[in-house]
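hey m, so remember when u said the tokens were messed up on ur end? i reran from scratch. heres the input so u can diff it against urs
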Amino acid sequence: MNDDRRTFLTDLLTTPSPSGFEAVGQRVWTEYVRQFADDVWTDAYGNAVAVHEGDADASIAFTGHADEIGYIVRDVTDDGYLRINSIGGADRTVSKGQHVTVHAETPVAGVIGQTAIHLRDVGHEEYDDIDEQFVDVGATDAEEAAEIVEIGDPVTVETRVRPLYGTRLAARGMDNRVGTWAAAAALEAAVEADVDATVYAVSTVQEEVGVQGAKMVGFDLDPDAAVAVDVTHATDSPDVPENRVGPVELGAGPVISRGSANHPSLVTLAREAAADADVEVQLQATGTRTGTDADAFYTARSGIPSLNIGVPNRYMHTPVEVVDTDDLDALAALLGAMAESAADSAPFGLDLR
């Protein structure tokens, strides 16, 4: 990964962007794509779109979602503690004992309280739901807390981007900054190759709370095809039961989904583009739904041919998600090759004759 793209990825990962509060992260993304896009625009809720205007009568959108899971301030106790609710699928088993930032008008440092092991009935613990947990910002009463926070302020876990051995990288919010990074990389490749198809890069909002941004963009943009890039579960760590999900390895390449929302024509395009670009890919079965923005795109308007491509990710929805940057480089090459072939592959509908 070149230095510019690595810096861009780090900037995305270090900019908090919980669902419903994506504006700061979207500014990072739009600032980057403005360097090479023909045009960049946003909609009322902050979905961001950048475009390469091609000459052919074909268009393809590469999308990722900008938002991350988090928490939101629900109430302030008389003692100055903050009661919280989840934003998206926050994992109650990893939240206690974490440093957090309350994104008030001025950011406020806090911690999610955890009773000391000495004071717990060890061996009989149960995990409290998020709405039973609390943030300690150091305030001594509700009046002090009200001076620095408000009901409805978002909260994110405070973590670092940490390189692991080799090409592995750990951070909060890989889900799905790697997708928005990939969408931008795909557009950059399309511009450099001056591909015939019109290529959109899209950074959607509020995926973690029901693929809401993709519903908006799918209706408004109406591309000929949409490729939703998101993380998928790497199953090569010892904590994953073999019967839960298919074989996906970190560092073994992007993951092409088959079934449900994934249009056969786009599956073929992706596999052929991977072969042309000499990119190793993995396959994943999604018999019912993908759990990604592809589920919204493929039912937009009268149906947009869609595909989910996954980035192998360990420990999803925790503060220590792990990806392999080799997979990201391979993904950028794959999406670039798909952009080059899109005009020749269109239209993407099924031929039932």
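this time it looks ok to me. The helical segments are 3-13, 23-33, 142-146, 174-193, 212-221, 264-276, 294-297, 325-345. if urs says something different then somethings off w ur setup not the seq
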